[in-house]
User: Fold these one by one.
Assistant:
Number 1:
Amino acid sequence: MNLKSLKIPTSMKETLWAYVFISPIMLGFAVFMLYPLSASLYLSFTNSDGITVAGFVGFDNYVKLMSDKDFIKSLFVTAYYTLGTVPIGTGLALIVAVILNAKIRFTTIYRSAFFLPVITSMVAVATVWKWLYNTDYGLINAFLMNLGLYEPPWLASDKWAMPAIIMMSIWKGIGFNMVLFLAGLQGISPTIYEAAKIDGANGLRRFVHITIPLLRNTTLFVFIIAIISSFQVFDQVFIMTKGGPAKSTTVIIYYIYQNAFQFFKQGYASAMGYVLFAIIFVITMVQLKISNRKDVN
Amino acid sequence: MSAPSTSLSISKRPPVSVKAAAVKWLARALLHLLLIVGSISMMLPFIWMVSSSLKNANELYAVPPIWIPQKWLWQNFVYMFEHAPWGIYFLNTTKITLIVIVGQLIVCSMGAYAFSRLNFKGRDALFFLILCTTMIPYHVTMIPTFKIMKSLDWINTHKALIVPALFSPFGIFLLRQFFLTITKELEQAAMIDGCSYPRIFWHVILPNAKPALTTLAIFIFMGTWNDFLAPLIYLNDDGLKTLTLGLASFQGTNTTQWNYMMAGALIVMLPILIVFAFAQRYFVEGITMSGMKE
């Protein structure tokens, strides 16, 4: 009874304190998320250059984007990067995770080796890979020469620069996806595998018929994250190629960066940002939809 | 990946034939071989970086490549420190990272406490709104945020990097999930003793949330230490630069001196590697949590 009579003043106090506790995060949220989000939508309808007073131009920026060859190209370059990194990167990570999930010795050491690139700075490792890809003295071409194979000019060629960035990015990201897959694998009960073993299913069949279906949610999730982050690739491009040669590695964020901070076309860059946002949103929704349909079946 | 085993493990000690044991041993050996090759290939870029950073120009460009330099040229690092203020870059990065860690932990744990423990109007709607924004890419808000910084006259200051980084939807999410798992009995006992909400937050919730706070701290450390785009946009003065931006600028002026470039890359990543050696578990947990949010 005593507690109940206390409750009314407590709940008012509770609400009051709750607002005190959330006020810093809500303030930051309003200033650095809600405001910029709406401001950049507004900017995308202006010809803001950061110096003169911005004028309202309606859908001009968006119309201009449709015929901007460099923008269209940057979309294709980004799609190329995504198709190059995501399927191979996720597939390799899944295989490594399944192997490292086995009860064998030294898994911690192996896991660390795969995880190390994840924690290191992209700027630093991109610098290292730039040296590895050096056409005349790089380690990779020295290795290829040793095998008597063709030595590509890598970052110096518009044909090879993107594959070089893709390989490096797969190396960098494999450990991240591996950790997510390992977490998913922990959720599969070992008794399912035991039962399949007794039924005479070999390793490969267990992988295809148990691991892959039961990891579907994790895989979907890894795919979504991988696609979102691959649409936002920037650091390695900036360090390794600066978008070149011949704009062959000018991914969309790099193009936005150039427009916003080098050409000072802030309105135009904001419109690009929103187009990219829309693309990411649609891709995520489509993926979620596909996974839901599979649930019904 | 393991060999098909023929013996059914029903009895406690199955009779293992010599042949089955040999097959199993061979499979294991192959697996380890595969993993060793894989691990070494993953490590090769790092090994090559260290090796290159200690070479002179002749060894650097030698064909075939030399893995272990005859004389380890530690003076390459001395050269680095003489030609760019790496000590200052290091201090700048450390300062920014520490302030962001402490600040974000305070802001996010306060918010997470209210969102997980206190009842108030609009709580779930607000939390959902915050959670939705984790999906929004940084570049969408980048330009208006830059304008805010410009109007505050914060361009070319560390404030432009620190202040926006204090508010993290992911931090709120991670801590809230953990706070929900803390038993309510401790709180109720404290409440009956007449403890105020701030005291409960400080004396009951925070001490019980140390693993989650550590995980978030490590996660922030990794993100802030390695951040490149924000320093690139905001910082111009050499004396204000962070390690990643310092390395990028150094590269602009020393393109072909790869021994120095590799020394620089090592300087940038060494601190995080040291922390990783001691707190590996929290790095992995942070990544796992970041995979759980949506």
Number 2:
Amino acid sequence: MKRWSLFSIINYSLLALFAFCTLYPFIYVLAYSLSDGKEAVRHTIYFFPKGFTFENYIQIFKDTKFLQAYKITILRTVIGTGLHVLLCAMFAYALTKKNLPGRSLFTFFIFIPTLFSGGLIPQFILYRELGLNNTFWVYILPFLYNFFNIIIMRTFFQQLPNSLEESAKIDGCGDFQIFLRIILPLSGPVLATIGLFEGVFHWNDWFTGTYFVNNQALLPVQTLLNELLTQSQALANAAQNAMQSGGTTTAAMSTTTVTPESLRMATLMVATVPILCVYPFLQRFFVKGVMIGSVKG
Amino acid sequence: MAQLSEINISAQPNKSPNKRAEIKKKSLWVRIWEHKIFYLFLLPGIIWFIIFAYIPMYGVTIAFKDFNFAEGIIGSDWVGFKYFKQFFDYYQSWDIIRNTLVISLLKLVFGFPMPIILALLINEVRARVFKRAVQTISYLPHFISWVVVVTLMDRLLTPYGGPINGLIHALGFNEIAFMGNIKTFYPLVILSDIWKSVGWNTIIYLAAIAGIDPQLYEAAKMDGAGRFRQMWHVTLPSIKGVMVILFILATGSIMKAGFEQLLLLNTPATNAIGNVLDVYQVHAGLEQGRFSYAAAVGLFQGLIALILVVTANRISKKVNETSLW
């Protein structure tokens, strides 16, 4: 048996500390969201819930505003990601055809916007002129294509053996059939990677909802969380002022089992958990995707 | 680097001279007709890039116009550099530029070495399960939105029953209001940025480290180098190329101090040191409706960024013989 060297002990401790710092915020929020709201105000929570209850989760799943927002988030993630993956894959596949006249021109055409982008304001004006603002489509249409994702897919498709396509052609398969029946089924890893990247983007995007949408029924969960954050910051300011003038804090006066804060923590968990459940299983794939993207980008 | 370069090579199209000659024989129109289905594949993309990428590029001209929605981008009157002048005459404009640079530079100085250090530490781990667990956990914050991160910070750091302040109190110190505090603003910005990105940024370094020839380590061991000196004399020099490229990319985004993060973290109390170009554009453009003015600020920012990345690339080419293009 090899003894643990000092180097190893320090190294393992540092990494364990790092992992703890990364995970702790989520442990804390989980504990808070499972606590009785009133108890959570009265005691400081560190690792374990105080007055264990599912009430916070029951409450938010009864809240129509939250449910509507969750529906919007799921819808835009599914539709936005599905369309993005399919359209980018079609574009990327066409770019793998070596004899396609104008192939490099098309690549150049989609590369240029990565160097010069119009920026936020022209984008906003465009959405308005197209009538996208305040519609569900503002979550979908602007994000249908992405240069880097197309390049990652193209690189993957190029690695597939050519003989498969050729034998399918001999069997009388058309180009579209080849793409649908041979290329896509063989491209699981890259489709999963791009699907994950795009899905996470859609799931997490709060900016579009906050600045391009006014209709309350169209807001996604992340925008809702942002509203709660702004309210909490305002509340903290008010509390600070109240403390300075000798009053009690608003939080401390709360008497119900659920508080805005405990509901917020439950909302945060529900908004985060789906991602946490998905990404570890795709790790193998996305690590490779990042490398291709960095080499070609 | 082996994995990286392998991908690179296989990505190159096969150009056998025979095939080329054969293709040349067919006329262009025949070839285009043969590929008609693929043009159909490309068509929606071409339309999309024209609408969502090229039209906004033209839309930048509103920085030189008096834009209003009634007359549109083309119809609005040209005003030259009026809005650029207005920005530089604004009494806070230099503060905003300075804040942008200070925050980016602080992030670069403290944030850039972090993934390298983490990758080196992870690379030294021999226990597979532990290594994999640390890596998986380290990627987690990358998948979380900034809204969630700032909400986490807001909750963890609050003086009203937050665990950090609970600990501070238990140790006998006074509670600190971290959020919206001008004294703790920069540390919070930098630490949260590192927390969110460090694990994800190790991916490329770990791939580069995995590609190092094991014989180099053997040779170093023969010469009596311990693990720390192997790290210093073998691992670090071997990933220098990757470091340089990532550094160039980082300098290119120095005019972007972290848009979403600062939009969420900056409050009126910290505005004097937290207002940056990106955030200012949102406030001036989207919230106050000063479109031409905000577009001018954005164009100024983009121009400096382009100059910076080109310069950094040129310097790196001379010094290191490594460059992006």
Number 3:
Amino acid sequence: MSDITPTADALLMAKPAPRSRNMGQIIRWLLLFIGGIAMVMPIAYMISTSLKWPHEVYNVNLIPVEPTIENYTYVLEDGRFYWWFVNSIIIATITTICNLLFDSLVGYTLCKFRFPGRTIVFIAILSTLMIPTEMLVIPWYLMSQSFGWLDSYWGIMFPGLMTAFGTFLMKQFFESVPDDFIEAARIDGLNELQIWWTVAMPLVKPALAALAIFVFLGNWTAFLWPLIVTNSVDMYTIPVGLSGFGDEADVAWELIMTGAAISTIPTLIVFLIFQRFIIRGVVMAGLKG
Amino acid sequence: MYRNLTIRQKQIVWAWAFLAIPVLFYTVIRFYPTGNAILISFQNWNLLGSRTWAGLENYEKLWNDPVFWKVFQNTFVYLLLGTPISLVLSFIIAYHLDKLRFMHGFLRMLYFLPFMTSAVAMAWVWRWFYQDVPIGLFNNILAGFGIPQIKFLQSTTNALPAVLAPAVWAGLGFQVIIFMAGLRAIPTSYYEAAKIDGVGWWTVLTQITIPLLRPTIVFIVVFSSIGFLRIFDHVFNMTTNNPGGPLNATKPLVLMIYDTAFNGFDMGYAAAQTVVLFTILLIVSLIQLRLLRST
């Protein structure tokens, strides 16, 4: 699988081959363009509606006649979305940092150390990929109940602090770090922790970035477990809060769209900034993980 | 003490020091709960009272529960509709996008953008689209053309495809990207040889491209199958007034598990359902390994 990274890079460039600008190519381009526009329509309508006045909401026009940020002011002044946003940021950030540290440490250890029990640990972690989250939520809930973790940040975060997926992604990438580098660092008198942090980690930065994006996005959008473990409105994450908000009887659609936009726009902005990087990450993770 | 160890022994000490917390984590947060879930599935427990041994009672109840069979059927309908549709669509998009140069990156971005959205937010957007006139976008557009209204979420036949659509939509971009990477990995010499032999595009597609894409196809099929078997966020949010409705027409297995455990507090019964889900996913994964090995 060592030819994956060139593939990922090649993917970022348009193919140099066909130069012909015949009718077929033009039709192909037009159809793909229409399809692409259709793909982003739900997002476009969500943002457009969040900028409309109530009386305009049920018009099918995409561009609001009189754009307003009134809905955003209303939703944010309500205060709940503000807290849900903060909760989601904190939880997704801490979980991402934990995954980056532990998954890479475990991946590095399994890749570069020879010790008794290595194969067992490797297979044990690999086998957890087969266990669906849905099977674990009941025991996790009982565990949280007996330890008093319900309705807390720790309760929301603890199941995702390490992932087998991340561990294997990192292990794959540490294979490309030459053993000579590690040996040389050992001779220079660095201890194993320093070698991991100062020698190996900088060499797998692209993989760390890909993992960070996956873990952050996954936790930002996570729904089932936060829904189960939280009770009080203050502890909700954005998806759980939005779900309850939309379900309230008197909430208008333009406000729901505003809430949906608040939960989606941050990830869209991150994507637009790091687009090439994220797509490369998806390819790396998809093919290596 | 440490100084007297050989290099190899020091390595062992370091390795286990690095692994201590993770091993504890995987034991307590993954393996113990797995065993616990299986154990609870053989017990009766409503969270408040005591746990009593139930033997196979929960599984018998499941076997005789008409709702379970409806849910089981729905779960596979999600899988059997969602996986082929998204596979074919993403392949067609990737195949043609791969042949274009003009604004290639921009088009790719359009297709990938939905993957970055949150399922809950998009479920609400689509739910709004599906409302009756004068609210919903789709019915408003239909009304504009003078076409009769369609009941999307209220109809027992239309609701499941209506819920599935945003799930397919959101996953498409990811599959397109994976397919394009797979297409790029095929050596151009195959195509050049085909060109010299004067082979038509259809033969190239069916004899070269698709056979060589087999590992990619297997990966996408398994990845999306597991996703559709575990569908929950979209269903729950598009039917919050009557989760899984109308008349359980959209209810997938995960929603039934959630309902049984956290609304009905029948932990034993819910655990038995999770064991069934686990078994289904395990079988799908084993089939994958089988298919990958034979390539």
Number 4:
Amino acid sequence: MLLELKDYLGDMKRCARCSICKWPPLAQMKSWRFSQNCPSVSRYNFHAYSGGGRMALGLALAEGKLDETDEELINIVYRCTACGACDSSCKYNSELEVLWPIYATRARLVGAGCFREEHGPIIESLRREDNPLSKPKAERGLWAQGLDVKDLSRGGQADVIYHAGCLYSFDPELSAVARDTVTLLRQAGVEVGIRGQQESCCGSMAFQLGFQGEFIKFAESNIDDWNALGARKVVTSCACGFGIMKAVYPLLGKKMKFQILHISQYLDELIREGRLQLSKKIPLRVTYHDPCNLGRNSEEYVPWKGIEKKVLGQLIIREPEKTVRRGWEGVYDPPRDVIRAVPGIKFVEMERIREYAWCCGAGGGVKTTIDDFALWTASERIAEAQSVGAEAIVTACSWCERNLKDAVSAQGNRMQVLDIVELVKQAR
Amino acid sequence: MALEKDIYQQLEAVVGPENISGNQAVLWSYMYQPFGNTKGVWAEIMPEAVLLPQSTEEIVAIAKICNRHHIVFKAMSTGWGIHNLPGVKGAILLDLRRMNRILEIDEKNMFAVVEPHVICMQLQVEALRKGLNCHIIGAGSNTSVLASATSVVGYGPDGLSMGFSGRNLLGVEWVLPTGEVLKLGSLGSGAGWFSGDGPGPSLRGILRGWEGAWGGLGVITKCAVKLFHWNGPPKLEMKNVPPNYVLKEPLKYFRASLFNFPSLESLAEAAYKLGESEVGYFISRLSPAFVGLQMAGGQNYVNLWESGMPQQMLKYAFLFVIFANSEGEFAFQKKVLEQILEETGGQASPLAETEEMQELTATSVIKVDAVTRSCFRSAGGFNTSFGSMDTIDLAMNQIKAGTELKNRYIQKGVLMEDGGDNSATLVFDQGHLAYTEVLLMYDNHDDESTGGAMAYLADSNKACLNQALGLPIFQLSQVGTGKHGAFSPACGDYDKWQKKIKKAFDPNNTGDPTAYTEPE
């Protein structure tokens, strides 16, 4: 299995309890107002809700100090968007894993049959309908009706496969983004195919909730299908899918004969090559929200396997040396370059960006199970966007977009939330 | 012993159900405390509940309930170290995380008013915008401003120009263990926050004295601290990627240099002279191991150490930073420095002269953001020994005693080999005072190593006593009673006074006495 708490004992036991996980990297803090990095501890406050607190819980669980069936423990474990901000901040000064012990703690609970009640229907929907949204599988490809695009579920192959993702496929408001994506790709001359009804979830939700078996099933099936379809590139709009395909799929050891691209990377490439030209002015002051799974969580993760050795008396070194995933090799510049390519646009950065971006609040299954927490987290991001005078937040993730839109709507706010594809479409 | 239901309900009524917990998972997360622990990472005594108060009024109400029912309470801010937990059974823990506001930055009078959970970095970024800066303790900018100002020690290497947290303390709002609210300094006479000593009651000696009461005398809910002139830009933009964020633009009139001296005596002489001449922004005695661990980790660090380069170049060294207000002042400070180096035989180390090291050093000097990198990363377990605040000469004697003693334990293989002399920080308050901590790294999950570290700490405390090297910061994890019991007879029986203070301010002994003292 991918997620074993015992694999992270060394990390959990060496947390310094310095609380650096609760802040953006200290040198990057810019104001008191936006000086937090962890939605969970910011919202619920007890130390258990922080990265360090979660390491302590993982260790206590591994050492048999806690009862897995404790309802409050389960609540704490799942009131976390698994955004990985704690992990990035910790690695500013250390090489400890923080996010993966969080995943492994969830897997441990699931292994003991302990999870939130709401998770049952999500997993059931994944099993029956290949999506976590309780939507009929048969309706998966409906978003593409009427589009001039090859539906590979009816046979054939394609050089580029567009994987829309669950939310873009089923959310009536967001599925326009999937349609626009295909339209833009076609306009750029890309031979693109979709899997229509046969497209299935990337497994990200299952992984993040700790259901490793379900995740592996989806991941292996997707890899096999994409290999069989002879695709050179798999392009997705789903940032959660992109993150999991880049960082976790390779750990399954299956050969992946295709390149994985997020749509923001592909649009950037097409714009640079002159295959997509943006000519229409959009006089808007916008900021960009980094989706966690497109950013820090999409960086390659190499689980460390080796031995710890003591040298110089008690100095602990790892053999082989560990590859440290600090989160800065995520996808940060392509979406920014796309935004900057739009004529007339005024791009402004928020305070917490890139590897230390504040999460939108939707990740880790939170949007579907603890919506009030998701909306609170989003409202903090909206306030941050407002603080830099943005009229619109551009993002590149269906879950971020859904959650930010819901929060804007709940607040009666005038902030626009735009998908990066939507922006490009408008600029054509 | 769980809290009786009606008491829990009374406390819950004060803070609200979302802000109190007696749940095991919540409590175990607080029990994880490696720093200061004598064995492993878990504390031995679990609090009965954790509360998250948000105001002075709530803390007053909690204290009164505790007094009525004889329940001990202990407050923590960021909570780094085992001394933040109650040391007696049946106690409750107040996590002051929700009291996190900067209430005021008074530009004209150069002070800030903060609540307990404001960390140094939060205050610094807000102060810089107003052309001001704040003292950051050596432990790093992730620590509470208020905690070091009012309750626990409080020195750091920028203290050369920005003093000592205890000295920087101005007006204070203090909830006594009884639940009474005491306002100190000018705040006590309704004159605002600007002074710690009047008009109004000046109880700084009682509140904190040299090292503070470590949470044993109630809860300090607000305090004002001095701010200092900042000559840099209002915002510091960073470049590069983690872990090496550095300033995008170099600071004007800023120069960081590492100086190596022929002996500890000449290093001390230079430190005296620099203090007397009132130049410099930051000074820190930096050991070869500390610098090496800032530069590299894992095998890279081992290679660096085994090359012998840091030991050779930094045997008796300090990092000295000039950060002047003008070109003229910069030239003047440089000239003073050059003259002092000439008189004391100090040589600039080429290590700090590269552009890369200048950038890295500037960031860490201003932000004090990379302390855990050098302390906890190497072996997991970390502690500090010696550390009394006194003269530069005494600090040098601490280094000598610490090096000799620690080397014995290094030879036994129970501590990390760091050359023995792994001491940090030097002069503050423009040279009037100095201190040094002798750092040690050990594996806190290895019984032999931990046992060795504890034996070293016990020996270092004996050395402090027998060689008149001053009070150490920590005495194993027994910050309070154990330390005072051992050192008080050699220091005018100060403990007797502390016990009287504890009795007078806390007749029911509801403020956790563990890290402070038992009442008379």
